[in-house]
Amino acid sequence: MPLWNIYHTDDAFNGEEKAELADRITNIVYPHLPAFYVGVVFQEVTAENFYIAGKPAKNFVRIWIDHIARTLPLPEQKADWMRRAHKAVLPIFTARGVNWELHVDETPRDLWLIQGLIPPMPNTEQEKKWHADNKPTPYAIEAAVTAQ
Length: 148
What we know:
The chain is an alpha/beta fold.
């Protein structure tokens, strides 16, 4: 489950741009994951509550991403992921002239549940089912625990 927390000044996006950005993040950055894994939260922050270099921020975005469904242990995986993330946000950020930065935290997979279920391991038949159905469905828990 990637969760994108997008902190932004009130002049950074309109509603249509937020919807487009969430769609681009889901489909460009995570095409291999069930879409319902991908969460995007927009946190609008007023200028008097968002400071960069000790001054109120203008047209600024700070993205904090929690990765749980997958980790990126190899340098080439990290580089590929960064390329996809850049591709997803750049058109909107460039069009709006937004200044931005992002970082990713990776949370251990064994500290994650969806609807009380242990998510299936990557690329398993159950994960493919979740991807196709775009929702979690119960399955034999023994298989999930043994696979981890």
